[in-house]
Amino acid sequence: MFKEYDPIEDKMFNIIDDKGVVVNKKWMPKLSDEQIVKAYKDMLFARTADLQIVSYQRQGRIYTYPPNYGQEAIAGAVGAIMRDEDWLVPAFREMGAYLAKGVTLKEIFLYFMGYEDGSLFKGAKNILPMSVPIASQYLHAAGIGYEIKYNKKDQVVYAFVGDGGTSEGDFHEALNFAGVWNVPVVFIVQNNQYGISTPFKVQTASKNIAIKSVAYGIEGIKVDGNDYFAMYAAVENVTKLAKEGKGPFLIEAVTYRKGAHTTSDDPTKYRTKEEEEDWDKKDPLDRLRAFLIAKKLWTVKEEEKLVSQYKKEVDRQFEEAENYPAYPLDDAFQFLYEEMPDDLKKQKFEHEKFLQWKETRK
Amino acid sequence: MEGDKKMKIMNMVNALNDAFDIELKDDKNVVIYGEDVGVEGGVFRVTEGLQKKYGKERVFDSPLAESAIVGTAVGMAAAGLRPVVEMQFSGFAYPAFNQIISHAARMRNRSRGRYQTPIVIRMPYGGGINALEHHSESMEAIYGHMPGVKVVIPSTPHDAKGLMISAIESNDTVIFMEPKRIYRAIKQEVSEDKFSIPIGKANVISSGTDITVVAYGSMVREVQKAMVLAKEAGISVELIDLRSIYPIDRDTIAASVKKTGRIVTVTESPKSFGVASEITQIVNEEAFLNLEAPPARVTGFDTIVPLPKGEHHYLISPEKIFYEIEKTVKY
Ligand SMILES: Cc1ncc(C[n+]2csc(CCOP(=O)(O)OP(=O)(O)O)c2C)c(N)n1
Question: How far apart are alpha carbons B260 and B262 in whole angstroms?
């Protein structure tokens, strides 16, 4: 795969075209119809939720949120392959992967509503919290990879970052360490063409991101990130190799952030309508849907029914999150140290005294 | 301070933008760069329009890498440019820490005066905007603790402009922390002319007799709200806006406490090892015998700033400031 799609030649791995037609039979993953339909449904659910969140945000019911719109195939493919025991090291724009791990939408809502409990991820094994300092989590992934190798575990780490993140030193240091240690980490870069307003060509003079693997002595591949099958095949292949001890891998998933950077961003300031329309033609859900419809596995009617069902489910979990109990003062203090230092206890006590005084003034 | 007054209503964003405009026009060596500062004009629009006016060589977007942004600025500055760089949020400046503390802050000393680093490192800081993790902290004390850099924090549009002009013209590295909560909240008349405010001098905003309150950045406005409560309680407050964390203006603080005998310092940063602790010690050294109550402080907790739903627990309210003022006066 890596020779065939050599990043030095700037080749991109894809399996279906923009119309959902298989153009690369050789690498078509062996998936049952049910698996493909499930993958589509999962992506559809993630998209429905994502679009709903943006509208909640407009209604002032949730704070800043980074939309996933247009990038669903990447997290979808990782989510389909990642096992419970594998590790997910997220950035903040791969909702499908959290959901696959067992994170609930409600938890995601709580996080973006501003509750610490939104990072609890109660039902999910082996997942780190979202990482806002760009690319810093890549080093954690390398460290987890070390532990896996050290204890000879059957696990793989999936780590996410954006194209902007590849400019940070942490990105390069992580690839270098993981390469030297030869650890089972799959580094996934969602190249959605922008870091906020900054386009890919301002981040790097490299032709692509996958090529950066060459310098660290590891394998890398540039994949059409809006092609579910290509993403699946690439992740499946590197997962197998990683488990065989063949070291870390870099996957550049080429995609497009169809939405804004976050709900406080205005993309019209830095990109054109024409560009957005060009990328619309490569939408990952449209492509997989076209494939399914051609195989008579899906209908538009079915989709409409499902979307309205999903919307209700999203609303239900959102309302649950909205009714979450108020954030207690203790939450600001309790997990900072294993045992709260006396000085910190005193700060809390003094604050409570102030609150009592405030009550008596009313 | 102001020249022939052509006044215009500005918020802090406008005032900073005006300072950059003046400096870019006056000094060809001034360049501005950082993440999203060029085309978009920064996530808070502080540098909006400057790339259009001065071109992509002078105002530009950099790759996403704080260490590289400051590190390249050290090189540019040593070679003669005057870079003004942005850390998108103060909570994301830490990758640049090594370049700030090991190089920007030391280059003149290390090279025995041969090279200097006239860099302005801008960073929006502070809470109160319902932001995600890492977007709300006030870590000015760590820069105050760092030998070799100046640390400036404005509290009004007027001060922001005058201090920024001084910062760009300073031959030392200046950490310029911008209280993002009041970026657009305060509007006032600011001169359109070039004027500067000296770094290292505090500003007595209002004089009073019963107690000195020292604050800076977004806390000044909170103290002013608390002063309404204090006035109702018959307490006369002298409010000092520190303007510079370092160099710190010992004289203004000491003179005030010698008069009032009481002091409260208000900072949004964590309590321990902070600016308030430093001020308390300055008072001990300079005005110990004038004290009628222990120097007090209103600060954040020694915790991480909570996410938005819990941020109210952490943020400093005017009531809390008044509570401490009253306690100190009644001591
Ligand atoms: C260390 C650091 N610097 C700056 C920021 C502010 N910031 C948040 S997202 C972002 C752009 C990230 O772009 P990219 O890595 O391409 O990911 P995307 O947002 O496109 O998913 C920036 C600059 C940050 N979160 N962390």
Answer: 5
